[in-house]
Design a protein that fits this description.
This protein is mainly alpha-helical. β1 and β2 form a beta hairpin. α1 packs antiparallel against α4, α2 packs parallel to α9 and α5 runs antiparallel to α6. It is globular and about 65 Å long. The two termini are 19 Å apart.
Amino acid sequence: MRNEFETYNPYICFAFFIGTVAFSMCFLNPVFSAVSFLFSILFALTVKGKSVIRFLLMLIPLFLLIVFLNPLLNHYGTHELFMLFGKPYTLEALLFGVNTGFMFMSIMIWFMSMNAVMTTDKLTYILGNFIPSISLMLSMIIRFIPSMRKKGMEINNARMAIGKGVRNSSRKEGIANGMETLKSLTANSLEKGIVTADSMRARGYGSSKRTSFRIYRFKRKDIILGISFAVLSAYTLVSSIMGGMKYDYNTLVFSNTVWTKTGFSTYVIFLSLPFLLNILEELKWRSLRSKI
């Protein structure tokens, strides 16, 4: 599926992901947490495909751990389900654990989508002029992890070809071969770091004010989407300040005012816009291909 959202200006994309993560962490209302979780999955499916399902399955054990561990640590509420280790296991604490679990999973999936949309060059474009050193370090770290993983697989495959791999050895020999692989990988990483540092020093990095080449420009669609995000997030924040997202886990009473209904509507629209952009772009391309 075509990822139309990533064609927008990096500032717009970055602001959206910051907003989604911040709202997901601040809104303790279970309805709002469920909505964030739902749209995090829908959007991730448009940018990562079926791999989000495997990622979600990996998060389920952590979700269950958070859900059932919270009532063991917090004993507030009046609806006692049973006694465990001499402490009451309450319904209110269990529901708060469920909300915390959904909040955790939605944040992780939003970050997964952010990693697909916000590439290294986009992060450098956003942070380069403000904090160039951190921007460079962050981009190098993001590039370093997959590069190190790929190099480690190459070293291990080469050692397996000569009968010194980790898998085709006994446990004792496997540990020794694994340490040799790690030793070679560490030496290769240090060598690459030295070469990169020398290359940057030879090119004059840090000797004068940094300049950069920018390929991103604000277009009309960026301005329209940016204003939409600003208005929707501002109204959602005002609704929260006015008590529209309030939910009391001790009494299981939630707010049901005009601020709740309008804030919920703007929140849903805010979260759904990138997903709708990707869906509409995909439908457009399918329609154009069918006419060829």
